[in-house]
Each structure stands twice: as C-alpha cells, then as structure tokens.
Specification:
Blueprint lengths: L6 E7 L13 H4 L3 H12 L3 E7 L4 H10 L3 E4 L11 H10 L9 H8 L1 H10 L7 E4 L15 E5 L13 E2 L2 H14 L4 E5 L4 E8 L5 E2 L3 E5 L12 H5 L1 H7 L1 E5 L5 H17 L5 E8 L5 E8 L8 H8 L4 H14 L3 H4 L2
Parallel strand pairs: 1-2, 1-3
Antiparallel strand pairs: 4-7, 5-6, 5-7, 8-9, 8-10, 8-12, 10-11, 12-13
Length: about 350
C-alpha cells in the first residue's frame, strides 16, 4: 500500500466541517460530523497533507481550492448538492472537467445507482432479481399498480438516508398506498417508487474496487426489540434517532447462520450489481433474503457512510482491513480510476 505523502482536498458539506478536536463533546454532538472527522483524522495519520473545504451551493470555491492547493486527489464526502441527492454526481463531473482525481463513485455510477427506478430497470435487464416496482410521478393520476403486488413499500425515487420511509410506508391496499404516495409528493416533493415488500432478512455487503473487486463479509441489520406488528425496515427515524434505535434494538453485525455457499452467492451477486451499475471506488449493496433464501436487491449505495465503527468500516475490518488502511485503499483506487480525460492520447 502506497504511503507517498499526498495533497488531499477533503470535500464536505459546510455544515459538517468538524472541529480540530472533539475533546469534551458528547456522542450526540459529534454524530453529525463524525464521518468527516474520522476520515480527516485517518488521512492525517497516514501522513497526507489535508485541506478541508466546506461546500455550500457554489462550485467556484472548489475550483479556487484546486487551483491554489493543487491536490493530488479530492476526497469526496458530499452526499448532495443544492439539497438534492442526485446532484452529487454533477459535482463529481465538475471534478472530472477540472481533471482532478477523486475518491468514490464516478458520475455515471452515481446517477444510475441513486435513481431507484432506473437502477432497478438496469438490474432487471441483467436478470438480477428485484422486487416488483412501479413509479408514480408528481402530478400523475394515481392508479392501481400493475407491476407490483401488495403489500408494497412507498419510497422516494432518488433520496438518501431513508428519507420519507416510516412504518406507515408499508401498505396493504390501494387506498392506503394512494394516501402515502400523496403524502410523499406533498411533504417531500419527490416522485415515488413503490416496491413489493419482501419479508425476511436484510443483509448488506461492502464492495471495494474499480475493475478488480473485493467484497467484505456479509453484514445484517438486526431489530432485537422490535414491537409486535412493526416491520423490520430501516426507517428515517431508525437511522437518525438514537433513543428510538435503543428502543427497537437496532444494530448491525456479521450475518449469522450463513454457510459458505450462501455467503459466496451474496458476494457474486454484489459484484454483478456493482458492474451492472458501472460503479467505482466503493459501495454497499443492500439486499433482502426471503424465507426461501432468494436474494432480492433493494438498492446499491455508492459512497456509503465511512464512519469508524459503522457497518462498512466494520465489515472491512472483519476482512482484515483496518480503518486507516481502508481510507488509504479508497485514495489509491481514486488515483487509479481512469475517467475519459485520463484516456486521451
């Protein structure tokens, strides 16, 4: 693994720029910027020269920082731009126009994976099993679904962090589905995708690489104290409310009871998904395994949470890759990725 000292421009949301020290801060106070802090600390520990840039709604500061600092690579920690999830791809496209290497997924992979409807169409084309689904655009008359059977779960087409997903998102009839779609259209303002609700285990697997892919051990989402009648789904509240996480016993960890054959099947499927969506850098693939052990793709998450102690980093460590080594591997992959401007000549 390269230990050459690099100039690294860490791009992150302005509101998540971490302090130099977290001494005296509570876990709750640290939580909003924990990923940014962990990554910057790891880059420092690796010996790189790191400059942090808080990004708001303008691209010019990125250009100015690149012209002044001349980074070897930009470490991309952005999750959206102009408060729109899929616009993160355009920031990465801008980095390509500036001929600046970057970490994580390329623009095409971000666009394909973050559009839930388009990604499912592509995966279906590649004969990868996805739940039945249907899209309802804002302003479109809501009709009975013809491509998905009840129960279904109602989601936004292109947002992160389970935005808009709640226990009420799982519906069993048309009237309840219509009400939930209208709620998402009005409150969140996005188009909606409905998917057949697949019962069973929710498993995830980390993937690392550009062309040669490595997968980490299969991880699982556990709900140890879920109230009777509730669905084991990662709602927006479950991802952001620590007290609620404690009440429902939400945790992640190695998937229990998977034999070598099952684990290998998850790994093979994850690599197929990653390639079908033309991803690069790193991603987390979320799947459901039903009672008959059939695997359904829920979504691919390019540039997942890199917090120390969270599932992606924990599964990497279970594979023998310590946190700092993981961050260095992500940097090395970013330097090795070949966008169009590197292929000229």
């Amino acid at each position: 693994m390269s230990r050459r000292k690099l100039r690294v421009l860490a791009l992150m949301h302005q509101e998540f720029v971490p302090p130099d020290s977290i001494e005296g801060l509570s876990d709750e106070e640290i939580h909003p910027f924990k990923m940014e802090y962990d990554v910057v600390q790891a880059l420092d520990a690796l010996g790189h020269e790191v400059r942090v840039l808080g990004v708001a709604d303008e691209l010019a500061p990125i250009r100015d920082a690149i012209q002044e600092f001349r980074p070897h690579i930009a470490f991309n920690l952005l999750r959206y731009f102009h408060d729109i999830g899929i616009y993160d791809a355009h920031v990465v496209s801008y980095l390509e126009l500036l001929k600046t290497p970057y970490t994580g997924a390329n623009p095409r992979g971000l666009l394909l994976a973050n559009d839930k409807a388009l990604s499912k169409k592509l995966l279906h084309y590649h004969r990868i099993k996805v739940p039945g689904f249907q899209v309802y655009r804002r302003g479109q008359k809501i009709k009975e679904p013809t491509r998905a059977k009840f129960p279904v779960i109602v989601k936004t087409v292109a947002e992160h962090a389970s935005l808009g997903i709640a226990q009420a998102s799982v519906v069993h009839d048309f009237e309840a589905m219509r009400e939930r779609i209208e709620f998402v259209h009005e409150r969140i303002g996005n188009d909606v995708i409905i998917e057949e609700y697949i019962g069973g285990r929710e498993v995830t697997i980390g993937v690392l690489g550009n062309d040669r892919l490595v997968t980490f051990p299969v991880w699982e989402l556990y709900f140890d104290k879920l109230p009777s009648g509730s669905y084991p789904i990662a709602t927006a509240r479950a991802k952001t409310d620590w007290d609620y996480q404690e009440r429902i016993g939400l945790r992640t960890g190695p998937a229990k009871g998977l034999d070598d054959k099952q684990a290998a099947a998850v790994s093979r499927l994850a690599r197929r998904i990653y390639k079908a969506l033309e991803l690069s850098g790193f991603a987390r693939i979320d799947l459901r395994m039903d009672d008959e052990e059939r695997l359904y793709v829920l979504e691919a998450n390019p540039n997942p949470d890199l917090c120390f102690g969270e599932d992606f980093a924990e599964s990497a460590e279970a594979a023998g890759l310590r946190y700092e080594e993981l961050i260095q591997r992500i940097v090395t992959l970013g330097l090795g990725y070949r966008p169009a401007w590197k292929q000229q000549g």
